[in-house]
From TrEMBL:
Gene3D superfamilies xref list: Aspartate Aminotransferase, domain 1, Type I PLP-dependent aspartate aminotransferase-like (Major domain)
Residues forming coiled coils: none
Record domain Aminotransferase class V: where: 45-345
Natural source organism: Natrarchaeobaculum sulfurireducens
UniProt protein name: Serine--pyruvate aminotransferase / L-alanine:glyoxylate aminotransferase
Enzyme class: transferase
Gene Ontology molecular functions: alanine-glyoxylate transaminase activity; L-serine-pyruvate transaminase activity
Cofactor(s) the protein needs: pyridoxal 5'-phosphate
Region Disordered: start-end pairs: 1-28
Family: Belongs to the class-V pyridoxal-phosphate-dependent aminotransferase family.
Protein's GO biological process: glycine biosynthetic process, by transamination of glyoxylate
Signal peptide stretch: none
PANTHER family: ALANINE--GLYOXYLATE AMINOTRANSFERASE, AMINOTRANSFERASE CLASS V
Database matches in InterPro entries: Aminotrans_V_dom, PyrdxlP-dep_Trfase, PyrdxlP-dep_Trfase_major, PyrdxlP-dep_Trfase_small, SP_NH2Trfase/AEP_transaminase
Amino acid sequence: MAGTDDSIDVSEIGELTPPERTLMGPGPSDVNPRVLRAMSTPLVGHLDPSFVEIMDEVQELLRYTFRTDNRWTIPVSGTGSAAMEAAIGNVVEPGDTMLVPTNGYFGSRMASMARRAGGEVAEVDAPWGEPLDPDDVNDALAEHQPDVFGFVHAETSTGVLQPDVPELTAAAHDHDALVIADTVTSLGGVELRVDEWGIDVAYSGPQKCLSCPPGASPLTLSDDAMEKVLSRDEDPRSWYLDLSLLEGYWGDERAYHHTAPVTNVYAIREALRLVAEEGIEERWARHERVAGALKAGVEAMGLEMNASDEYWLPSLNAVRVPDGIDDGDVCSALLERYDLEIASGLGDLDGEIFRIGCMGHSAQPGNVIFVVTALGDVLESMGADVDPGAGVTATRRALRE
């Protein structure tokens, strides 16, 4: 045992040998070997001239992927939640009101971060599993006159893709509110156009549709949003995530703020290169085609999607758990029998859905055939009323179309 002893038996710990999983849950997704190779390249200092060039390249690639010309586009040192907190904690000042959605787990996290930033929270209601209705958003904006409106573009907890984004942002701007978008499960996987859609701030995570290990998380701010950040009456409550300080490192000065996670920046650079090589619109189309085959398979098997077709989220497929089946038992069996990861539901949908990702490097035909086959086998063995053969046939047919 370790602790206060002067020695430790390393043989008790052994070499690092994690299992080789196929990652088809809500994230992380499988990582392209090119990204892993990039992470094995030699370190340089975080102010080394060669690393400064890499920083510039990452920013340009992020602008391409976000579909924005925003100068203030950076990878935040941390996971997607760090980028989320950087966005909300800098834009929301004490006394500000932030309007947030109630239709998913991550809308609730927006609310929590806004309160921690000293803001007041107002809510626009929608059931879990449905998107925000533009009329309801208009009514809430008129009632609360918020300083900031936040919405989740792709709700990981429900499998819902928010439609009508330009309509929502236009309504918010009519009420002089800045718009913050959670794009953690959409960036690089489904259509997202930050500038064209009028989004002021968007944050994301690298481990989902970008298929990059967590550690450097995308964030972009418009000039209007950054002006609000730089004109605050008091400093944000987080020194580490203070964008007015991070601007000195990621802006023109390249002044020391913190030691950037160099290896993670290498990783996101290579992941974003893969996005650009494929082409962003082609990448959106691939996700829709491959996830569409997954959807066809689970439905043909006899399962039901949680989200309606008009707001189905290709990168995160929420599938209803059949009657009499324990979702946790299914997820455990898939890991044990197939080294395959999917996930259970969160929050209000805990125990009611499976969450099956189809993201980035994991969004491949062979993977979705594997998922449908393995899921059908496990469910059938547990007594569910499913037809695994019909599911596999439908998946293959959809992939040929």
